[in-house]
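One-letter codes give the sequence; the fold follows as tokens. An example follows:
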Amino acid sequence: MAIRKRFRVGERVVMTEDALENYGEKWRDRPLRIIHVSTKYMPAKEFFARGKPEGYHPGFDASSESALYDFDEEKLGSLYDWELTRAPSRRR
């Protein structure tokens, strides 16, 4: 079974209520821009030696049946699909 990506690089998302329970209220309604999407595992040593190849991540777990996302926010780890929802559109 192929893992589907619900979001793409560049999209803005926010954490779900379940994710906020784990990561804290400081992340509530805070838009996060996706910079990397992973659907395959690669051991950390190989991942970094190959220059962080697109689609791979040393923290990816295929049993999650979900893509793993990284963000432009350095203080936040990777999150899976079920921990994210689309950020509200910005008004212009």
